[in-house]
Amino acid sequence: MKATDSKKDVPGLVKAISVYYYLLSIIIIIAAISLLFLDTSLYGLLFYIYLVPIFFFDFILSYLFVLPFAALIAGIFLFFVARGIWKGRNWARISIIIVSALLIIYAMAYVLTAIPGITISVSPIHIINLFIIFYLLFSKRVKEAFS
After folding, report:
1. Who contacts 26 (Cβ-Cβ below 8 Å, separation ≥6)?
2. Domain spans of the chain?
3. Has residue 147 got a pLDDT over 50?
């Protein structure tokens, strides 16, 4: 018996979730790389037109420098998580549940803080992430595939 014969099949919706996270990771990696190139021109712009006080300038430069690298690390992490869930790894399932929950919390917090007086609205991203959480937590087929 081959080692692959004993492995249970990963449900199709789990593979679709994996594709969703592959795409998300690629978008984040592209955005991070573009931020790296944007930052070099933005540094000069901030310095030459004095948009910020000098003492605050170092803080902004460090923030603009760290953000693309943090996004790049997150994108690479999500790529490996997508690969893990495609292969039926339980650590990837748990990671996607946590990331989906954090994305929902972040989106709600952003809406509440970005525009004063606005109420929380449900977007398609909220629905997708809620579906991912509930499907990965409560589906019997998923529990069997990842056990």
Report:
1. 75, 79
2. 12-145
3. yes
